[in-house]
Amino acid sequence: MIKPMLAAASAIFLSSTAHAAVTVSITSGPTAFAASGVTSGTDKIVTFDYVDGQAGLPSGIAASGISWANDIKIGSSTGNWLTPTGDSSQYLRVQTTSADSKGGVSFAATGSQNPLFDTVSLYWGSIDNQNVVYVYGTGNEAIAAFTGAQMLKLAGLATSGSESLLVSFTNTDGAIGKISLASPHIPLEVDNIRFSNANSTAVPEPATWAMLLVGFSVVGSTMRRRKTMKRSFI
User: Which UniProt keywords are listed (predicted)?
Assistant: First the structure.
């Protein structure tokens, strides 16, 4: 059964996308940040390392909801934002008034690349329970949503607001057209948002866990560190 704190994020699943399946892979450890910047083939990555962020976006990727002057950070500010572990570069801080994806920051694939992207990875820093990542198909339909609480539980980590993870979302039933980030009141920090195709991109994963989501109900076994687990939400 889904815990109450996860219900809001899980509710984003719609009946029209009941057959969509999103696999989540989580990588932790000292090499996670470096792994988040690895690209190959047709991959597109947003690094936030540009003075003019909009102009620095890779071709075929569009961003919305960002204030490039205010939301791109480097370093930490006590009580305001925290640098993702191991990240000495610029990163994105997202802070919204609600967990609704409509008020968040979005990154969308707009090009006609072949194959289409089925995976989006990001380096998720200083994870808080109420951080939310929404995953969309190519028809702008929301197919999944994940909270920081879910990611920490999968990784077997306690919530302290200082953990950072490389998280990859893969749509096993099609392509991913967009992701949206939201976090009410407490910031979400993220870097190296990468669009790729799982069939052509390999990323080093020193400690990986996985779950399969299709709907709402949880089925699965107890996860152990450094062991792959799959869960099904129906």
Answer: Signal
